[in-house]
Structures are given as structure tokens and as C-alpha cells.
Amino acid sequence: MPTQANPRSDARYSIAAVSKLTGVSCHTLRIWERRHGFPLPHRSPAGHRRYDLAQVELLRRIARETQTGRHPGDVIAELRGLNSPPPPCPLETEPLLTALLAADLDAAERAYQSLADPLPPPLRVSRIIEPLLIEIGERWFQGSCQVYQERCASGFLRRKLSLMIDQAQAQNPSPTHRALVGTLQGERHEGGALILSLLLELAGWRAISLGVDLPLAEFQKAIDYWKPSAVCISFVMSGHLNQRFAELATLRGAPVFVGGRSLVNYSRQARRYHLIPLPGPASSTIERLIHEARNWPRPTETTRSPTRELSTPQPTSRS
Ligand code: B12
Asked: From ligand 1's centre to the CA of 307, what distance in Å?
């Protein structure tokens, strides 16, 4: 396990970038460094932490293991016994990725079907789609895949997600609650919102997808009209997050959940604005989302009005 910082040409990831790529907060990365001696970063000429790809990959693995309840110290100790870093994404997805990057869509379809057919939708997401989206972004970041390849591949994967959402909706004719899912203006990444929508549908909720890049005022109108039990906003880009949180705090009529890879370092700030931060993969936070939405408003919550039972919205007059 490469815990020691050897001079490596690919040591170019800042702590903020590593945090986003692994879902481990900057604070936790520094704590692990101090307590467990991993990851020991390289240093830039200005003294800033710089991590290499092997460290990023090991951190991803540690993050995955700790999400199952394991202690980070144990996982780090165990990995110290291994000599080689794990592959960047599960091996069996490689033929699918290769076909997608070559725009060989027939081969991609075959590869996807053979991987996906035996798996239920949540595992298709966690074992194929989510890791591949991350891997594609990683390759783009490293320059080993072009933007047009990334578009082709991520578009294929989003279409698979949309298909699964359609199927889940068809099998969920009497949803118990509604959630609005989308991103605010300036945020065009839809994958996280789609994954969350799918998991909500599978949990018996109706996920109303408002897509990406939507002005805040439209969310308020949608809350007023559909009376959802939750508003779920996905943040991938971290620009102006405090400003975005302040804007979201003006929404009335439903609890506002914020998630996405940017949240990992901004949960405290989100809470300050009475938002409910749920950093980490949707598969591990959805239960909390459902629980918190059902128990909203909290006894201390005075600024928002309560959600209502699921009912057919009455048309409102436009002003
Ligand atoms: C596809 C993609 C695009 C597509 C998006 C198309 C579309 N319609 O979605 C396009 C081409 C538009 C794009 C553009 C850009 N992208 Co881009 N993109 C990606 C890619 C490959 C996949 C994104 C994705 O779908 N991820 C899906 C899931 C797996 O990740 P997730 O969002 O974190 O969501 C999970 C959880 O966080 C959680 N979750 C998410 N939201 C919520 C909300 C709630 C309430 C809850 C409970 C949970 C939850 O659930 C999800 C599943 O577990 C990523 C790679 C990556 N690592 O994600 C880069 C990536 C996100 N992009 C990146 C960049 C830099 C950009 C651009 C700035 C590039 C440029 N120079 O133009 C622009 C910015 C566009 C914008 N303004 O938004 C960087 C972001 C780096 C950073 N600062 O964080 C990444 C990480 C690539 C990289 N490795 O550097 N991109």
C-alpha cells in the first residue's frame, strides 16, 4: 500500500479534489493522515497537499468499506497488507466502458445486458452505472478520454437510468409521498439526481424530476402546486454553495435535502441554512431522507410550514 509519499508525476490531486472523488471530507482526510498515517500526501512547491492516483483509488476503497460500518483504522491496516492498489473500477465493467468509449453501441448494449440482467436495479446502479460514471469523469480529468467520448458514454448510462425509472414508476402505481428532484441554475450534472429518483421510486415514493439548471423560483412554484414531502437538490459543482444554500433557505412548504459530491465539505454550512445535508451515495442516505421527510417539521423547526398528505394538486391560477 503506497502510504508513503514518493515523488510521482501523477501527484496532482488537491485535497478538495480528492475529497470530491472519494466522498471523504477534507477534515477526515487530515484526521486519517494524522491518526493512521494514510494518506500521506506529496507536497506542491507551495506546501499544499497533493495526492496521486493510487492514493485516490485506495481512499475510494476505504470509503466504500467504512460505509458498511467498518472502522477506517481496520480497513487501512488491512490494505497495508496488500501490495497493489485496486483496479480503478470493477474489472467486469471494462468491456462495457471500452465499447462506450469506442461508440460501439451494439457491443455496449450486449455488455450492459450481460452485466445488468442478473442484477436488481439498485445493484445495477451501485455496481455498474455509478462506478462507470465516476470512472469516465476520472479518465476525462486525466486526459485519457475526450469530451465527446465522455458524452457518448455518460449519455448511454443516463438513458439506462431513465429506463429503470420508467419501469419503477410503472410498478409503483400508488406512491405514498412525492419528492421534487433536480438541480439549481448552473448545475448541469443530472446523474446523481436520476439515481436518487430511481431509488425514491423503488422505495414507493413518486420522484418528480425537474431536471437540471432550474431557477429557484420554479422550485417554489412546484412546491406550491404539488405539495411534495421533500425537495431534493443535487450539487456536484461547488461554486457559490453558500449563496445557493441561502437561496434554498427561502423555499417554503417542504423540507429541503441537499446532496451530491460537493456536500461532503459543506454539510455544516447547509445545516446553518436549515437545509438537510445528506452527503454520500444515495443508496446509503435514502433511508435517512425518507425518515427525516416523514418527521418534518422537527419540533424546533419554525420557519417552514408542514408537508401535506399526498393528494391531487388543484390547478392554481397564474399571476
Ligand atoms: C456526465 C458528466 C458531465 C456531463 C453532465 C451531463 C448530464 N446531463 O448529466 C456534462 C458534459 C454536461 C458535464 C459538464 C461539466 N463537468 Co462533468 N462530469 C460528468 C461525470 C462523468 C458524471 C456525472 C454523474 O452523473 N455522476 C453521477 C453520480 C455517480 O455522482 P454524484 O453526482 O456524486 O451523485 C451521487 C451522490 O452524490 C448522491 N446524490 C447526488 N445528488 C444528491 C442529492 C440528494 C438530495 C441526495 C440525498 C443524494 C444525492 O447520489 C448519487 C448516487 O449515489 C462526472 C464524473 C463524476 N465523478 O461524477 C464529471 C464531473 C462531475 N464533471 C466535472 C467538471 C469539471 C465538469 C465541467 C466544469 C467541465 C467543463 N470544463 O465544462 C462541466 C460543468 C457543467 C455544469 N455547469 O454543471 C468534474 C467536477 C469536479 C468538481 N469540481 O467537483 C467531474 C467530477 C469530472 C472530474 N473527474 O473532474 N459533466
From this structure: 30
Strand bridging mode 42-43 / 49-50: antiparallel
Q: Would the CB of 135 count as within 6 Å of ligand 1?
A: no
Cβ atoms of residues 102 and 145 within 8 Å? no
CATH 1.10.1240.10 fits 91-169, yes or no: yes
129 lines ligand 1 (CB under 6 A): no
189 CA from centroid of ligand 1 (Å): 5
Cα–ligand 1 centroid distance for 252 (angstroms)? 27
Read off the pLDDT of residues 258-313 as tens digits, 9 standing for 90 and up.
999 988 889 999 999 999 999 988 988 999 999 999 999 866 554 444 344 455 55
Q: Which of 246, 231, 247, 255 is nearest to 306 (CA)?
A: 255
The protein residue whose alpha carbon is closest to atom 68 in ligand 1 is: 237
Amino acid found at 99: A
Total-model pTM: 0.80
Q: Work out which ligand 1 atom sits closest to the CA atom of 212.
A: 8
Strands (E), the chain: 42-43, 49-50, 178-182, 206-209, 230-234, 256-259, 276-277
Q: Which CATH class is domain 15-80?
A: mainly alpha
* CATH code at 175-294: 3.40.50.280
Residue-range domain boundaries for the chain:
15-80, 91-169, 175-294
**Distance between Cα 287 and ligand 1 center (Å):** 23
Instruction: Locate the ligand 1 atom nearest the alpha carbon of residue 188 and give its number.
Output: 78
